[in-house]
Amino acid sequence: MEQEKKDSPVWQKALAAAFPYTLPVLTGFLALGTAYGVLMQTKGYGVIWSVLMSAIAFCGSMQFVAITLLTTVFNPIQAFLLSIMVNARHLFYGISMLDKYKGTGKIRPFLIYWLCDETFSITSSVDPPSGIPKSYFYGFISFLDYSYWVLGSFLGGVLGNLITFNTQGLDFVLTALFIVLFIEQVTARENRRPGIIGLTCTTVGLAVFGSERFVIPSMVLILVILLIGRKKKCIFPQTKRSS
Amino acid sequence: MHLPANETFILILAVALGTIITRFTPFILFPEHKKHPAVIAYLSKVLPPAMMGLLVVYCLKSVSLFTYPYGIPEGIAVTAVAALHIWRRNVFLSIAGGTALYMFLVQKVFM
User: For the whole model, what pTM was predicted?
Assistant: First the structure.
């Protein structure tokens, strides 16, 4: 048995290790991707278009925003600028993953291209098991999440209204994923304050700016408070002053 | 279909380009073979938990506290996920249990 384990190629081990982490995303993306495909269908955009949008742009919530852009006067500049604003949170994901994605070689551009909310939440929270290179491990998590989203959009476009199973509320699976990973993160003492800061600043941002435009102000608020905390040395225990 | 095929395709590319820029910018500004400024090293440690907090709120952004059902199903389900997870520390159980509860609440209780 030991022999057999050694013989299985490293990519297989990496896939086996990565897959369980992506299960909540599989559920959530099939539900949301399908909803996206169906919605596109009702606006007259067939399965080819939902799959193309998902495969090329791959940006969940922005794709839903883009539906409104597809049903009004053609304005690619507006679409481009809106896409940057809605996706601005990726800037912070990138900064967070600079070290983890270091030295991942040829797969690195794909890790960056596939870095969505859900993939970030997993890859920033877990480390590859020993003996599995991070390029494979993070590569599979990223690729699986990406393919679930494209598959979901495809299914939504094809099956459309054939789905009779009542899926209302199923997309809560992604909220649950983020709550669980939030708890996992703040279990480490040094993460507690930044975690609370993120939660509080975003809640304040949402209350002040409303659900349409709170993300960027919240990010700015988070950044400012984290930087003040660094100056006062009270957020991250670089000073070994942690209680 | 509102737009012709070529315009739709250009719009997809415009949305994709915006997304790609937000994803690649940090990695281009701070290439892997160079040493990053201390503030970036600090941010890369504190941003993941902070952004996870942001994502939790982001998912709940459309919940209205002032119209029926006043965010009650979300409140119950969020509490259940958190309690379940702190109690059992089982990722699958917390996510599946919380989602099943939420689906039950929105489909059968708070209709």
Answer: 0.87
In terms of domains, do A219 and A116 share one?
Answer: no
Taking each helix axis from N to C end, the angle separating B5-29 and A60-70, rounded to the nearest 10 degrees, works out to 150
pLDDT digits (tens, 9 = 90+) for A7-58: 789 999 999 999 999 999 999 998 889 889 988 988 889 999 999 999 999 9
Interface test with B, best of A70, A72, A180 (most B CBs within 10 A): A180
- What would the two tokens of residue B24 be? 């690649």
Domain tally for chain A? Answer: 2
Of B7, B46, B61, which has the smallest distance from its Cβ to A206's Cβ?
B61
Give how far B68 is from chain A: nearest CA, Å: 16
Q: Are residues A127 and A209 in the same domain?
A: no
Question: Which domain range does residue A217 map to?
Answer: 188-237
Same domain, B21 and B52: no
| CB contact (8 A) between residue A198 and residue B54 | yes
Prediction ipTM score? 0.93
Cβ neighbour number for residue A238 with a 10 Å cutoff: 14
